[in-house]
Design brief:
- This protein has about 450 residues and is an alpha/beta fold.
- It has a domain of about 325 residues: Metal-dependent hydrolases (TIM Barrel, Alpha-Beta Barrel), CATH 3.20.20.140.
- Strands 1, 2, 3, 4, 5, 16, 17 and 18 form an 8-stranded mixed beta sheet that branches.
- The protein is globular, with a radius of gyration of 21 Å.
- The N terminus is likely disordered.
Length: about 450
């Protein structure tokens, strides 16, 4: 079964009905072209974009909503985060998926589709997706990724190929629409890719160099993996050493780097860059300011714990990795890989930052790396949709697509950080007030006191 078919059936069967809506005025970046144009009018019905142009008298009825935009407001496709962690590690005792408040924060930031890229509590994510799609509560689309395959899964024990095929089939039956390998040996990756593709879903991988039975991206690409996280890796790495200490010194002009890039291009393998991910483990870089104080979304108890921590220290490897990821992502873009790059935040929160906001930091990082603003927006939208087989229904603003979009104040092609100024969010044709969503989220993430640590 083709990936687009299985995902198309999955999405269309769960879109909740929404009131007819017209978005008029302002400006439009549709992610089809690299330009901003006058918004001709967006007519939305049944959760989809029905038509572009002025609303006619035959459209809608007495219950129609009209959203009139100002001269300094811009409509963009909803952001698609393909490394959208819901898990948090607030007590330093391990990660747990938090799906009640993170969903509000993602949506309030214009992130309308999330792929968690590995889950610690997969049943929790499946329930959240069902509730959101049924209209019980607001949130982004959740494309479930199921448990990790590899040593990053708590209690992981090596599995046979037959066991992997059986488990994948079960998770797909329950609603998982993609998988992630992390800390997996080549045998596990090969079986996971074969099993996932049999069911028409994708596999991404947090890979390594081949050191100590890890899997190198070059081998994973030959196996048919769909997407690679964090670094391109490949033949530019030394299989006798861990990946990151080598990658921070990689020469983008070297034959090994060029060969690795060529493998991605030739096989159409996507690259989820997660440029900002290392910064959460070292000193802060440009873009890590608070335009909204994210610490306020945690309980007062968690805020106190965070305030009492030792000051953030520089981690040399993580700082060097951030800069290496910036320059190698730009080199991949310059080599023709622009359509293969996707956006992922990879922020398992420790109480300082939240991944919904971090989507804007990742957009900023692309531009800081030298990628044009329009290309960065396409990376965050249509590239992500295509990477998960949903490019025919998500990622651009055009008739027939699901009505997932958001409105910002200020032209993002002139200043990419204008995407932070979210004024309105539309998910499946339903209009949301981002300030209201954030108000509902404040002070609610994490335990309330020392007697409330269970589950966190």
């Amino acid at each position: 079964m083709a990936l687009s078919l299985i995902l198309g059936v999955f999405v269309s069967s769960t879109v909740a009905a929404a009131q007819d809506l017209v978005v008029q005025g302002g400006w439009l970046f549709d992610a089809i072209t690299d330009e901003v144009t006058r918004n001709p009018g967006i007519m939305i019905s049944g959760g989809r974009i029905l038509e572009m142009g002025p609303a006619n008298s035959d459209f809608g009825g007495a219950e129609i909503q009209i959203l009139s935009l100002g001269e300094d407001e811009y409509v963009l496709p909803g952001i698609i985060d393909l490394h959208a962690h819901y898990n948090v590690n607030l007590l330093g005792e391990g990660r747990s998926d938090e799906v009640e408040i993170n969903t509000l924060v993602y949506l309030a930031n214009g992130v309308t589709t999330t792929f968690p890229a590995g889950e610690y509590n997969p049943e929790r994510l499946l329930r959240a997706r069902e509730e959101i799609d049924a209209g019980v509560r607001p949130g982004p689309r959740i494309i479930p990724s199921g448990p990790y395959f590899g040593r990053s899964r708590p209690g992981w024990e090596p599995m046979t190929g037959e066991q992997i095929h059986t488990e994948v089939a079960d998770w797909v039956r329950r609603g998982v629409r993609g998988f992630k390998a992390k800390g997996a040996d080549p045998q596990t990756v090969r079986a996971l890719v074969e099993a996932a593709h049999r069911h028409g879903v994708t596999v991404t991988g947090h890979l390594d160099s081949g050191f100590r039975e890890t899997t190198n991206a070059a081998d994973a690409i030959r196996m048919g993996i769909d997407r690679v996280e964090h670094i391109l890796g490949g033949v530019a790495l030394d299989p006798t050493q861990p990946a990151y200490p080598v990658w921070v010194k990689v020469d983008t002009a070297s034959a090994a780097f060029r060969e690795t890039v060529r493998m991605f291009l030739d096989h159409g393998v996507r690259f989820n860059a997660t440029i900002t991910a290392p910064v959460y483990f070292t000193e802060l870089e440009e873009g890590f300011d608070y335009w909204v104080d994210e610490r306020e979304f945690f309980t007062p108890y968690v805020q106190q714990l965070v305030a009492e921590r030792e000051p953030r220290q520089r981690n040399a490897l993580m700082s060097e990795l951030y800069w290496a990821m910036r320059r190698t992502t730009k080199a991949f873009y310059d080599a023709g890989g622009g359509d293969l790059i996707t956006l992922g935040t990879d922020n398992p929160s420790r109480g300082e930052f939240l991944p919904g906001f971090s989507a804007h930091r990742e957009l900023h990082a692309f531009v800081l790396a030298g990628i044009p603003e329009a290309a960065a927006l396409r990376i965050a939208t249509i590239n992500g949709a295509r990477a998960i087989g949903m490019g025919d229904i998500l990622g651009t603003i055009e008739p027939g697509k699901l009505a997932d979009l958001f409105v910002v104040r200020g032209n993002p092609l002139e200043e990419i950080t204008n995407t932070r100024n979210v004024q309105h969010v539309i998910r499946g044709g339903e209009l949301h007030d981002p300030s209201g969503l954030l108000q509902r989220a404040r002070g609610r993430i994490g335990p309330t006191g020392p007697d409330d640590h269970a589950g966190w």
